[in-house]
Structure formats: C-alpha cells, structure tokens
From TrEMBL:
This is Putative transcriptional regulator. It comes from the Bacteria. Signal peptide: none annotated. InterPro entries: Non-func_TypeII_TA_Antitoxin (IPR052991), Ribbon_hlx_hlx (IPR010985). One of its GO terms (biological process) is regulation of DNA-templated transcription.
C-alpha cells in the first residue's frame, strides 16, 4: 500500500498521549496515529451505513408503535418476556 505524508494540528495533550503509547509499545507515533485514524474512519463509515439503512427502512414506512415497544420493554427480565414486536404502523401506499 502506498503511504502519504499528512500534516495535522493536535493538542499538546494528545501529542503527549501518542508519545506515551509509542514509548510503552515501542511503536512509531505515526503507526499509532494511523491505526487510531483507521479505527475512527471505519466507525464513521459504519455509522453512515447504519443511518442510510435506517433512512431506507423509514422511507418504506413500516414502523413499530411506541405502545408496542413500551409493552415489550415492560416484559424484559420477567418470566413472560416477549419477543420484539413486529411493525404495526404502515405507510399508506
């Protein structure tokens, strides 16, 4: 994989933390920063995908009512715990 040089500003506190981790792990600061940035980017991509999927589901118009969810949640931890409710509100088509 080709690597590129990137410049960014970080706080003194963050710089010290990166240097401490670098010293503790005997790894270059750049490797630690790249790993952290990779994890952050992956998390952002996953959140964006989840949001896109939620919007897609909402656009289909099938929802679970507050009452159905509340009834379900009240059974949590009981001997009569219910399964998650199915959609009971549908978009008029």
């Amino acid at each position: 994989m080709t690597s590129h040089v990137m410049s960014l500003r970080i706080s003194s506190e963050m710089k010290e933390k990166l240097e401490r981790i670098s010293s503790d792990t005997k790894r270059p600061v750049s490797d630690i920063a790249e790993e952290a940035l990779s994890e952050y980017v992956l998390q952002q991509e996953m959140e964006a995908k989840a949001l896109d999927e939620a919007i897609e589901r909402a656009d289909r118009g099938d929802f679970v009512s507050h009452e159905a969810v509340a009834d379900w949640l009240r059974t949590w931890g009981s001997a009569d715990e219910k399964a998650a409710p199915d959609a009971d509100i549908f978009r008029k088509r």
